[in-house]
Amino acid sequence: MDSTTLQATFRTENRATAPVQRFRHPDDIFEALFQSVQGGESHARPTLDLTPDSPFLPFLEIGYALRSCVEKPARHDYLLARLRPHLSVMIGTLPASILPMGMLPKLAPPAGFRRLEDIGEAELRDWLIQEGGLIYGEMQRFELENYFDAVKPLLPPGGVMVDLGSGLGKVVMTAALTLPFVRCIGVELLNYRHRLAQERLVRLLTLARQGLEALPEPLTLETPLPLPSGVIASGRHLLDLGSRILFLENDMFKVDVRGASLVFLYSTCFGPLMDAISEKLARELSEGALVSTTTYPIKHPAFRLLQSHAPGTLSWTSVMIYQRIGPQMAEPAAETRYLHQPDADAWEERVRVDLAAMFPATA
C-alpha cells in the first residue's frame, strides 16, 4: 500500500473484560497482562520541583508569569496578545501547565521571578515548545489493537520496536505482548514517567511469572504459541518477556534509533518538533524501517506514506505509517517542510470561551 488513506473497519471501543481468576491457558496470561497496563491516562501528575537546585526553575519562572495572567482577568488581553504570535508551537488552546490542574506548583512564586513583560519572545517560544513535551496522552486498548493490526502486515518477523516519548510504557509493553519483536524499547525524558513505567514493568513480569507457574501444562521455550495478533511464535515469547523490554530515561534526540524496524511516535504533542524528529530519523534509520505518527505528518523526502488513517477510525486522532526510503542521509535537507499554524481568530475565540468558563463572574 502506498500513500493510501484507509477506510478499514476497526474496533471503536474497548470490549468488555472480566478479571482473570485462573490461568488455564496462555491466553489467560495474555489477557491478565493486557489488563495490567491499562489506565495510565488517569495517573496523578506530580508538580514540578521548585527547590533552589531544581533543573525546572527557568521553566517554572515563565510558567508562573503566564499563569499569573490567567488568574487575573484584567490581564487576559495581554496574555492573548503575547501567545498569539506563537500558535505554531502551541498544543491546544492554552498551555496545559498553566491551567488549574497543570504541573506548576500551587505555591507562590519565589522572589525575583520575572513578570511576563520582562520575558522576551524567543524565551516564550522556547518555553511553549518545551511545555508541549510535558503533556501526556495514551491510546486506549482498542486503539492499540487497531494499530498493531495495521502495522502487522508491513513488518518482517522479529525486529526492534522503539517508542520515542514512551510515557508510562503502555505501547512498549503492548508491542512486546502482541508481536514477536526481538526487543521493545521506550525512551522517556521525564523521570516520574520513566519510574512509573519501570514499576508497571515489574508488575507485568511478576504477573507473567505467576501465570506461567500456574499453567496446568508447563510452557517450554519451543512450545508453539499463538499471539493475540494471530502470529504464531513460541513459548520463548512469554518466558523471555523481561529480556525483550527496556525503558530508558533520556532525551529522544540523544538516543540513536539505528537498527529499529518500527519507531512509534505519539506525536500529538510534538507538532513543533516534527521537522527535527524527521531529520533525526532520516539520518539514523535504515531503508525499509517503519515510522508511525499521530496527528502530525512527516513531510520529509526520506519517508514514503504507506497508510493514513483518519481521526475516528484507527484511533481518536489521525495515524500515519511511513517507510524509510533511499540511502541514509549524512546531512539534513535544507527545506522546512512542516508548519503548524492554527487560525488565530478561531483560537482566540476558543480561549476566551475557556477563560469565561474559568472566571464566570467576569464574563
Question: Key features?
Answer:
363 residues, alpha/beta, Rossmann fold, 2 domains, 8-stranded mixed sheet, two-stranded antiparallel sheet, SAM-dependent_MTases_sf, histone H3K79 methyltransferase activity
Helices and strands in order, then pairings?
Elements: E1 4-6, H1 26-36, H2 57-71, H3 76-83, H4 121-132, H5 141-151, E2 160-164, H6 170-178, E3 183-188, H7 191-214, E4 224-226, E5 232-234, H8 236-239, E6 245-249, E7 262-265, H9 274-284, E8 290-294, E9 303-309, E10 319-324, H10 344-358
Parallel strand pairs: 1-9, 2-3, 2-7, 3-6, 7-8
Antiparallel strand pairs: 4-5, 8-10, 9-10
Helix pairs in contact: 1-7
Organism: Duganella radicis
Protein name: Histone methylation protein DOT1-like protein
Domain DOT1: 135-201
The shape, in one word, is: globular
What is the CATH topology classification name of the largest domain? Rossmann fold
Strand percentage: 5-15%
Instruction: Give me the CATH architecture of the largest domain, please.
Output: 3-Layer(aba) Sandwich
User: Overall pLDDT, averaged?
Assistant: 88
β-strand number: 10
- The strand order across the widest sheet is 1-9-10-8-7-2-3-6
CATH superfamily annotation of the largest domain: Vaccinia Virus protein VP39
Q: What is the chains' assembly state? A: single chain
Question: What distance separates the N and C termini?
Answer: 52 Å
**CATH hierarchy class name of the largest domain:** Alpha Beta
Q: What structural class results from the helix and strand content?
A: alpha/beta
Helix-residue proportion = 25-40%
Domain unit count: 2
Number of helices, where a helix is a run of at least 4 consecutive DSSP H or I residues: 10
Any idea what the radius of gyration is? 22 Å
Main sheet summary? 8 strands, mixed
Helix and strand element order: EHHHHHEHEHEEHEEHEEEH
Uncertain stretches? 334-339
